[in-house]
Design brief:
Blueprint lengths: L17 H10 L5 H11 L14 H10 L6 E7 L5 E7 L5 E8 L4 E4 L3 E3 L14 E4 L2 H13 L9 E4 L9 H11 L12 E5 L3 H9 L5 E5 L5 H7 L8 H15 L3 E7 L7 H11 L4 E7 L13 H11 L6 E4 L25 H4 L3
Parallel strand pairs: 4-7, 7-8, 8-9, 9-10, 10-11, 11-12
Antiparallel strand pairs: 1-2, 2-3, 3-4, 5-6
Helix pairs in contact: 1-2, 4-5, 6-8, 9-10
Length: 364
């Protein structure tokens, strides 16, 4: 199901670039520089109403209020881990759908994990989001507003340092809106983030990876590899036949050459499925020679409970088995699993999931 705004709905400025806002203002008989002013109010200062834009003439603010709008997500609930190193936000959209966004706090960083779709069309059996199926793509404004809403709730003096497209959905299957979000987040009227502080994560959509190069995108790229053996991978990744590993790795290699930075291959370990020494050596041979690092990820339990995590000992063994092929191998232990905020756990209240903020509301 694809959601489209009603034809009679006023244009939403949130999600428009500076140039697009300027074009709209010129059409209203205003000078083009107003586009930059409004973009700065939206993306740098986080304005939620035209009345806040005090360097615009009062008459223009009133006219904008009548002819345009500023979309704002509704915060329905939030939950935090006991250590306060992860916080999950449940946002309700204008059509009643819901999404989840995560803030990860480390000693020197604040990372916002953005969703790009309501649900996900890929349907990986180990991912809670995949069990929802695709409800619809998120608009640029809905993606950008996740960042803005989380930023507004940070403590004084805090600012997001990183953005990762690792929430609900497959980013490269909502390519246009994800790329527009990147351009807004890196714009001088916005947060002015470095592309190196933004990571697009994909399950291996080859045309999307190649299009990133064509569009001259220079963000970090993370590519999930469910298994290095195509037969096993087909059981874990429904689109394996459409995007075979050799083509995925070749596209990732070309992206690394374009950006002159290594790509990250992400590998979730499942007990007894893809965690043997042979699996590690097959993965190593697959990525050998590619400018990359391998990120080994502990599986975070998600409904239905068909899979098990491999455990710390096997994680360490797997890392050592792959080192001869790739020196840059790390173990990632995701934060937020206690509140369903870790990789593969986001489901935004669908399919009978526990309300995300239940523990916090009850004061536990």
């Amino acid at each position: 199901m694809v959601y489209n705004a009603r034809a009679d709905m006023k244009p939403d400025l949130k999600g428009m670039t500076r140039e697009e806002i300027a074009d709209l203002l010129v059409g209203m008989g205003e000078p083009s520089y107003r586009g930059g002013q409004i973009a700065a109010w939206l993306y740098d200062r986080g304005a939620v109403s035209f009345e806040e834009m005090t360097n615009l003439p009062r008459g223009l603010r009133g006219r904008l209020d009548g002819e345009a709008r500023i979309g704002n997500l509704e915060l329905a609930a939030e939950a935090a881990t006991a250590a306060l190193d992860a916080r999950k936000y449940l946002f309700r959209l204008e059509d009643g759908e819901t999404i989840e966004t995560v803030l990860l706090r480390l000693a020197t960083s604040r990372t916002v994990c953005l969703s790009s779709q309501v649900g996900c069309p890929v349907g990986c059996p180990f991912c809670a989001t995949g069990m929802i199926g695709l409800r619809r793509n998120l608009s640029t404004g809905e993606i950008v507003d996740q960042f803005l809403r989380v930023r507004a709730r940070l403590d004084e003096g805090e600012q997001p340092t990183n953005v990762v497209f690792m929430g609900m959905g497959e980013p490269l299957l909502n390519f246009e809106n994800v790329l527009r979000t990147v351009r807004i987040l890196t714009s001088r009227e916005g947060p002015s983030m470095s592309p190196r502080r933004i990571t697009i994560s994909t399950c291996g959509i080859v045309p999307g990876i190649r299009r990133l190069v064509k569009e001259r995108c220079t963000t970090e790229l993370a590519v999930s590899i469910a298994a290095a053996d195509e037969r096993k991978r087909a059981e874990l990744f429904p689109l394996a036949r459409e995007h075979p590993l050799k083509k995925v790795v070749a596209a990732a290699r070309d992206y690394a050459r374009w950006t002159r930075r290594p790509v990250t291959f992400e590998y979730v370990l499942f007990r007894g499925i893809n965690d043997s020494r042979r699996d590690a050596e097959t993965l190593g041979r697959l990525v050998e020679g590619v400018p990359c690092k391998v990120n080994i990820i502990r599986y975070n339990t998600a409904r239905p409970f068909r899979f098990e995590a491999s455990g710390p000992r096997r994680e360490e063994e797997f890392r050592e088995w792959i080192r001869p092929h790739c020196a840059a191998v790390t173990l990632r232990r995701s934060k937020g699993s206690e509140i369903g905020a870790a990789c593969g756990q986001l489901r935004a209240g669908y399919a009978g999931a526990e309300p995300p903020a239940r523990a916090e509301r009850e004061g536990k």
